[in-house]
From TrEMBL:
Keywords: Cell outer membrane, Cell wall biogenesis/degradation, Lyase, Membrane, Signal. It catalyses: Exolytic cleavage of the (1->4)-beta-glycosidic linkage between N-acetylmuramic acid (MurNAc) and N-acetylglucosamine (GlcNAc) residues in peptidoglycan, from either the reducing or the non-reducing ends of the peptidoglycan chains, with concomitant formation of a 1,6-anhydrobond in the MurNAc residue. Residues 44-268 form the Solute-binding protein family 3/N-terminal domain. This is Membrane-bound lytic murein transglycosylase F.
Length: 486
């Protein structure tokens, strides 16, 4: 017994000496563990991103963006709080990753083999092509051989590898990189004529064209490439990778990922330069008179969405009239107007009040099984082609094993209501389903333009006020973007 006690004492002393020797390397001493343990013990998922219309925007209505919502759901899945840090350049994001100041990058970054030497990539959640852009009105390059002006891309971006590959075929191709401006900043510089060319991803470009319509696509520089998150590569540590795989598997199976794709990407569509320019001009010239009415009567929806609906209906013309007899800003039928106590359909306030009320009634009629944030799209389809035909579209979706409560599924069936082989199986028969589809998609695009354009105007006004304040105090004024421009 005594010998056993002595052995335990000797073993204890040996263990203590070993612990002291290994103290600096013991994970729990440094507050470390695998990547997932660190996140959970900290209680925070630290995410770095760039400010852009698609990935992350801190708007007055709160944080928005595809990557933001995905990251928020991932943080909820892990049971931790999401902490987002905005960056101005791609390199600064990766610097944070290198210095353990962030857990992952969620910013619409293209999968890049060169990055895999130092980092790991998460699952693909959508795809983009890289495109060369120029300013509308300038000569359009058909290939890199036609690029004659200044071409600038962001340091650390995947665009550099694309240009290096292109230079093997086009040896006269030259470009410069900047570590001061983000890809979004460079796209803005092309649009306002300060830069001849840059590269961007197809989705971001399509979204930015809704606010910066002079941004034009010359050609695709790559095929479609996956977009992923990035995180640190740690030896023998697959904890964060396993968590991401399980998370994306869950949201793919339960439809969450498809819903987010529809919300942020589903209405990108084709770009119409003339229509977008006309709309943006109307925001400046016509909207200020009607805006107080949209703000007053928008009830269950954002006033800017109500304004987008009205523009699709009448281009904000109170005297608008269609061959079928609908009239006014919201293009109400005579019978609908009577039921809403609208005496004069050409009176802007009465029309907007009536249209908003009618839309509210339609939303109230929507089946409870439809998610709250999608009821508006079903209601708009009903507003355009009739409530009964919207029910037929849901019925047709169910017949084809789709989800009748998912707008992404139902909108695909709307054009089928034009076709006899499909509408013959419905309750209410033929409907102008293609028109209803385009109607809703156009409204969503107008809303996107309106929100982005108003935010940009507010930003410019704030910058102007700041410059005026500097002048008033006698300080030299320097435009940061001008100073940093390549």
């Amino acid at each position: 017994m005594t010998r056993l006690k002595i052995n335990y004492v000797l073993m204890g002393i040996a263990a203590l000496l070993l612990a002291l020797a290994l103290w600096p390397a013991v994970p729990w001493h440094r507050g470390e563990g695998d990547q997932l343990d660190q996140i959970k013990s900290r209680g925070e998922l630290r995410v770095s991103t760039l400010n852009s219309p698609l990935t992350f925007m801190d708007s007055p209505e709160g944080n928005l963006g595809f990557d933001y919502e995905l990251a928020k759901r991932f943080a909820d899945y892990l049971g931790v709080k999401l902490v987002v840090k905005q960056h101005t350049t791609i390199e600064s994001m990766f610097d944070d990753l290198d210095n353990d100041k962030t857990d992952m990058l969620a910013s619409g970054l293209v999968y890049n083999n060169a990055r895999l030497k130092n980092y790991r990539a998460g699952p693909e959640y959508y795809s983009v092509s890289q495109q060369l852009v120029y300013r509308q009105g300038a000569a359009r390059p058909k290939s890199f051989a036609d690029v004659k002006g200044t071409l600038v891309v962001s340091a650390g971006s995947a665009h550099i590898l694309t240009l290096e590959a292109a230079a093997k075929k086009y040896p006269n191709l030259t470009w410069t990189t900047t570590d001061k401006l983000s890809p979004r900043d460079l796209l803005q510089q092309v649009e306002n004529g300060k830069l001849d060319y840059t590269l961007g991803d197809s989705v971001t470009i399509a979204l930015m064209q809704r606010v910066y319509p002079r941004l034009a696509v010359a050609f695709d520089a790559t095929e479609d490439e996956p977009v992923t998150w990035y995180y640190r590569k740690e030896p023998d540590d697959d904890s964060l990778s396993a968590a991401m795989l399980d998370f994306f598997s869950q949201i793919s199976e339960d439809g969450t990922l498809e819903k987010l794709e529809e919300k942020f990407l589903g209405h990108v569509g084709d770009f119409d330069y003339v229509d977008t320019r006309t709309f943006l001009n109307a925001i400046d010239s016509t909207l200020p008179v009607l805006q107080p009415l949209f703000e007053k009567y928008a009830d269950k929806i954002d006033w800017r969405l109500l304004a987008a609906i009205a523009y699709q209906e009448s281009h904000w013309d109170p005297q608008a009239k269609s061959p079928t007899g609908v009239r006014g800003v919201m293009m109400l039928t005579r019978s609908t107007a009577d039921g809403l106590n609208v005496d004069d359909r050409t009176d802007a306030e009465q029309s907007i009040r009536g249209g908003a009320l009618y839309l509210s009634h339609l939303m109230d009629k929507m089946p409870e099984s439809i998610p709250e944030d999608e009821k508006i799209w079903f209601a708009l389809a009903a507003y355009n082609m009739g409530y009964s035909h919207m029910l037929d579209a849901r019925k047709l979706t169910a017949q084809q094993k789709g989800n009748p409560d998912s707008w992404a599924d139902v909108k695909q069936r709307l054009p089928m209501l034009n076709q006899k082989r499909f509408f013959s199986r419905t309750t209410y028969g033929y409907a102008r389903g293609t028109q209803a589809y385009n109607y809703v998609e156009n409204i969503r695009r107008y809303q996107l333009s309106l929100v982005g354009y108003l935010m940009e105007k507010e930003k410019q006004q704030a910058q102007k006020a700041a410059l005026q304040a500097q002048l008033a105090q006698g300080y030299p004024v320097v435009d940061a973007k001008e100073a940093l421009a390549p």
